Predict the 3D structure of the following.
Amino acid sequence: MAKNYYEITLALAGICQSAHLVQQLAHQGSCNNAALTVSLRSLLDLNPGSTLAVFGNDEANLHLGLESLMAVLNSGSRQGAGAELTRYTLSMMVLERKLHGNSAALNTLSQRIAQLDRQLAHYELESETITSAMAGIYVDVISPLGPRIQVTGSPQVLQNSQVQSKVRATLLAGIRAAVLWQQVGGGRLQLMFSRQRLLREAKTILSRLGPAY
């Protein structure tokens, strides 16, 4: 069956968006809030009607992720910001594979995400309560699967418990996108052998969106 590179690219952009947000949070203590909302909200729809529906049914919601995907695909360096983005992206893919092979963890994950819905009746998505709950899911369900993702940034920033929660919640959203990527036919080999195809697809989507403000 022919691969749907549009859907694969959207899901990959979702992973890369999380990677970029983690990078921003770790270095600055803050991040692109609109993109963060899209990523966190993607955790809540476990039976979406389409790939784009996971990200609010709007390509523009993945602007940061599409740009980050292009940076990852174009990155030849093993150091600096591009290498960090690539490392986070690949690490989330590795953890998704570990999750995929662990039915107990998958069951716990879906139960814990279902519980978030109840909390969202009382708290905003970006509230400390919800990000802490999402971070707790990451710590309890994803971290034990190993290997742990080493987040690098400003030591002072990373000591802040609210930043820690947002980083973990964002990593959880990235793993959600990695699950989606596998579901729509994504695979690690594409990053090696279909790089130009993915780049073209990302460029095409970005050309429709115009500049981000």
Q: What stands out?
A: The radius of gyration is 16 Å. The chain has eleven helices and no strands. Residues 70 and 200 are 9 Å apart (CA to CA).
